[in-house]
Amino acid sequence: MKVSIVTVVYNNVSMVADAIESVLNQDYPDLEYILVDGASTDGTTELIRMYQNRITRVISEKDEGLYDAINKGIRMCSGDIIGLLHSDDFYPNNQVVSSFVKAFEEKKTDAVYGDLLYVDKDNTQKVIRYWQSGEFDCESFYKGWMPPHPALFIKKECYQKYGVYDTRFKSAADYELTLRMLLKNKISATYLPMVMASMRTGGKSNSSLRNRLMANIEDYKAWKINDLQPKFYTRFMKPLSKIPQYFHGITQEKLELVCAASNSYVSNEVEA
Description:
The protein is α/β, with parallel strands linked by helices. 36% of the residues lie in helices and 20% in strands. The chain has nine helices and nine strands.
């Protein structure tokens, strides 16, 4: 199966190299890498040129925001499977792609998702949150669940059938898309209990109380435009469900074990 990974970046010269290198270092051979730059002015564009001959396609032009840029990338993808890795994020090891591809092949599924580490912006060895996704069922969304965006991989045919990201949203288009795909249209999804991405803290929707409240309003809108009816407690459960992620108790030693488990999980478990 051919895999396409999309990275969107704008003025992030200090971090985007980690994202790029974590994709280019993957051990999976049939990998297409699409990089969409929003016409950066801080040196990002020049840095990208250093990797240009190893990246399948680079586009650098102004866009209408994050989700517009993501959609540009998705439309350029020729792979069977599409993953998104933002410029602040990176894969924790070089076997992430080969791991989820094996799950797609073994489980005959439409989507694969895993766990996510939130790490300190300046010290990526320091874990702030450990998002253990858990198994999905249709009731999960009503309890505030969603899969972590950078650790979610979806077949291209699902985007073609059910659409890309809704650019009317400012911060919750990823939530809306997962509702539309998994709950409304019931695409099949397989959970791999392994760390599949690391994300630096400081995302837009969580950067202030105001942004968090706005994101909560958009979460509710995501249900409505899909003709879905949340429970009365769903809007409150989504932010509350994040609280246990901060009490992960991960030391550096445990983090190394988690990443080691990520390296070996598929070969030991998926075939079973």
